[in-house]
Structure formats: C-alpha cells, structure tokens
Amino acid sequence: MHSFDAPFRGTEAIASGALTAYELRHGFVRLHRDVYVRRGVAPTARNRARAAWLWSAGRGTLAGLSAAALHGTKWIDGSAPAELLRAGHVRAPSGIVVRQGIPDDDELCRVDGMTVTSPARTGFDLGRTAKGDRAVELLDALCHATGVKPAEIRELACRHAGARGVSALRQVLEFVDGGAESPPETRTRLLLVRGGLPVPETQIHVRAADGRLLARADLGWRSWRVLVEYDGGHHWTDPAQRTRDIDRYALLESAGWRVVRVDARLLAERPDVVLERVRAALRAAGARW
C-alpha cells in the first residue's frame, strides 16, 4: 500500500498499477516533469530534495541545503529551492538550483538511494554560500546532526583552496560548535564570544557530588560554575514546562551554579543586557580573562 507522501515518478506509479492516470491527475500535485506528491503533503526540504533527484533522473548530486536536510540537519527552510550539482550547463525548473561541479569521490555518499554530498563536503558548500551568521547556524546544525568535525571541513578548504568563498568559510569555521541544538543557541554563543567573554562550552552535563546527572545546560563554563540557558517560547507558555524549569533552576543553584537565562526578545532587542548579566555572573564567580 503506497502512501505517496514522498515524491515519485508518475509514469512509474501508473506502469506498476499503483495509480491510474485519473487518480494521478486528481489526487496529486505535479512538482516537476513526471514528479508528483500526494495532494496536501506539506513541503519539506527532504521532499524537495527527492523531487529534484527524480527530475534529474539520478544524474545529479544533491548538495547544499538539500544534502544537509537528507543528513538529518534541523532548521532547514522547507520553502528553499532544492540544490543539485551537475557537470555542464542544465536549465532547471522553478524550485531547483543547479550548480556546475563534480565533487571528488570521497566527497560523495548515498542517502535513501540518492547521491548526496558527504557531511564534510556539505559543510564546505554551505559555509561558502550562506551569508553571515546564518552560515554558522547551518554548520552548527550540520555538525550536531552528523558528527562531522570542523577540522574535516577545514581539510576540504585546504584541498579546494582556490574555490570561491573559501576565505569566508575559514572565518565561519572559527565559530562553529556542533553542540548547539538550535539557531538561538548559536546566536547566544556568538554574542558572548564577540562580546569579549571566554569561549563557552556547549551542552554541559551538571552532576551532583555522587555522580547523578542534575541537568544538561545549553552552554557555560565549568571552572566557574556559570551557565547560560536559552529559553524558547514553550518555556513560558507551557505550565508544566514552567514548573519543571522552576525546579531545575532551584536544583542548579543549590548545587552552586549561577544561571543566566536568555529568551528571543532579550537576544534580539537587548543583547547588551545579556552580555552584562553573563559578565557579572562570571566576575561574581571569580572569573578573570
């Protein structure tokens, strides 16, 4: 029984008897030539990638945001065009960006039967093409999802030293940390580092004297027992989460940790306040830098 929630070739579905031509016309949406998906399926980066792969008849390599999505990277915009690498000039339909290029064999892998740039090559491409802090956010998310290390991406920057955007990539890699679990966590870390504070550690496991895990914090400094936590919207709107947070922060403080909390509005509108609060917590803990 087919769900058709992922893109497929219409001619193949009809030839196999899974669908009639009438069903295809009336129950499905045409994405590209001979590429369809069930009507009502929300667009995702993974589905856009698969649709582009089918359109190319398997003669391209999924790259950039498409590759990142297939590697399990979160926070990829489902409305962004799919990205393909191919040799020579190819005219692509709306919703697909085709770039010329053939990655080295060790920069390729297979995901769900499709040819995709490896995590390291994906990071190499994203770090050269994404703009500003968005590049750091994407590489943080890619490293978190795949386990690829900035050093592996840096090796490709050395291999392809003449490629466009390599200088920008090298600067981006100075700030990448795969411990970040969301773009706001990345932005918080960038604010602290650029504000002159010591580089924080990400995803700190706080344990009691007997070794019990008390909490896992977004970022902070073990040596000074200072933590910085980014609270998303549900921390304020979900009563159960709110109660858990109250208990959690009381537990951390009783264990001798200082906690500075940050939310979206503080980060966007009053970053100077965030910096001053973290700076004060570090100094109160005896930090000198």
Order of helices and strands: EHHEEHEHEEEEHHHHHEEEHHEHH
Number of discrete domains:
3
Rounded average pLDDT: 94
The side-by-side strand order for the widest beta sheet comes to 9-10-11-12
Binned strand content: 15-25%
Could you characterize the architecture of this molecule?
By secondary structure, the protein is α+β, with helices and mostly antiparallel strands. The protein has helices at 10-15, 21-27, 45-55, 64-70, 119-129, 133-146, 150-159, 166-173, 183-194, 234-237, 239-254, 264-269, 271-284; strands at residues 8-9, 28-32, 35-38, 61-62, 82-86, 96-100, 108-111, 114-117, 201-207, 213-221, 226-230, 258-262. Strand 2 (28-32) and strand 3 form a beta hairpin. Helix 6 (133-146) packs across helix 9 (183-194) and helix 7 runs antiparallel to helix 8.
Write the layout of secondary structure elements.
Elements (H helix, E strand, L loop, with lengths): L7 E2 H6 L5 H7 E5 L2 E4 L6 H11 L5 E2 L1 H7 L11 E5 L9 E5 L7 E4 L2 E4 L1 H11 L3 H14 L3 H10 L6 H8 L9 H12 L6 E7 L5 E9 L4 E5 L3 H4 L1 H16 L3 E5 L1 H6 L1 H14 L5
Parallel strand pairs: 5-6, 11-12
Antiparallel strand pairs: 1-3, 2-3, 4-5, 7-8, 9-10, 10-11
Brief overview:
Helix content is 44%, strand content 20%. It is α+β, with helices and mostly antiparallel strands and 289 residues long. The strands form four sheets. The protein has a four-stranded mixed sheet with strand order 9-10-11-12.
